[in-house]
Amino acid sequence: MSYELVKKVKELEPYEPISGTYKIRLDANESFFNFPDELRSEIKEAIDGFDFNRYPDSAAKELIKAFSDYYGIDPDNVTATNGSDEVLYLIASAMLERGSRVVVTEPDFSMYAFYSFLSENTILTYKKNEKLNIDIDDLIAFINDNKADMVIFSNPCNPTGCGISADDARKLVREAGNCLVVLDEAYMDFWDQPLLKEAQDHDNLIVLKTASKAVGSASLRLGFAVANKTITRALRAVKSPYNVNSLSQKIGKIVYDHKDLLKERADEIKKQTRALYDGIKKLIESYQLPFVIYEPCANFVFIETEKAKDIYEFLLDNRIAVRLFGKYSALRITAGSERENTALLVNFEQFIIQNILKRNR
After folding, report:
1. Residue environment code for 188-220, b if the CB has 16+ CB neighbours within 10 A, otherwise e
2. Which of 72, 217, 296, 338 is the most exposed place for a label (fewest CB within 10 A)?
3. Local confidence pLDDT in tens for the 361 residues of the chain
4. Superfamily the domain 7-30+261-360 falls into
């Protein structure tokens, strides 16, 4: 007899992002800023003295200190990981027993359910309301009625860009019984309702952060978990000994040390997100289209329309990549630079003129 794949992975397909070359990439919620020359020079100088033959610092002390200084938190409450994906898997597999009941919200980041599935947890899906928001009292009741062991969701939400207030998040942490609450604040740099600094004060809260969005360092694959010392000790114990490579640690430390640059760039991304939202909303209203656009708390806009797939393909044909959510007949469009947003809006209007107005005549 030969080995046969176990059932839970037999039918899985590898993740395949959009492939090909596009002049504008607005599909992955990345920052449109690359590293400036000054930062690149500092990184090059640091790499010149690098010991490539040595393992990384298992504790990632310098990186964690720079991250903690940037956000004003205690480094003793931070775990550094190889992207947020690593910590998501660690939480789903190591912080819960097999068969634990995990609440995910829908729509939300699909990897929460995926890693819970791989960890053989029982997944309970909380459907958001018709405006794609979370009713916090309803969610708390759902958690308690189902005796959930963990709830995890993004705030602000990926893909909708909507968010719950810090007061609602606090209420959830207080009233969710013995449930572990995992808040993914990957996009909170673009909003003002974080619980990051309060994570150390709760025995059932983990707040996740990433360097891939506002920090503009997606290539480094840096994620962070912030929690009280008991949870932090457990996460540090179950992670791989050398989970964050030395290059990412060194570069990440340098990047987080540039506080003013990061904050200036976050402000500019917020400005361009608002410009993109206003531009698309104006087109929808001007042409009286039955599209729904959600006001964003993140660095992207979310649009529901029966024309989503057609718009997506039209933009690809014009070398602009956005994200299609076919299940929701929706598009998620990352804010780009002023030039990129202008090109997106021009092509968006061209689609309306060529494919909606002409056909309605």
Report:
1. bbbbebbbbebbbebebbbbbbbbbbbbbbbeb
2. 72
3. 799 999 999 889 898 878 778 999 999 999 999 999 999 999 999 999 889 999 999 999 999 999 999 999 999 999 999 999 999 999 999 999 999 999 999 999 999 999 999 999 999 999 999 999 999 999 999 999 999 999 999 999 999 999 999 999 999 999 998 999 999 999 999 999 999 999 999 999 999 999 999 999 999 999 999 999 999 999 999 999 999 999 999 999 999 999 999 999 999 999 999 999 999 999 999 999 999 999 999 999 999 999 999 999 999 999 999 999 999 999 999 999 999 999 999 999 999 999 988 766 5
4. Aspartate Aminotransferase, domain 1 (3.90.1150.10)
How far apart CA 331 and CA 311 sit, in angstroms, is 9
Task: List C-alpha distances in Å: 127 to 153, 169, 343.
Answer: 12, 17, 35
Is residue 275 within 8 Å of 341, Cβ to Cβ? Answer: yes
The answer to whether the bond into 194 is cis (omega within 30° of 0) is: no
pTM, entire model: 0.96
> What letter represents residue 19's amino acid?
S
Q: What is the β-pairing status of strands 205-210 and 180-184?
A: parallel
CATH annotation of 49-257: 3.40.640.10
Q: Where in the chain is the domain with CATH 3.90.1150.10?
A: 7-30+261-360
CATH 3.40.640.10 segments of the chain: 49-257
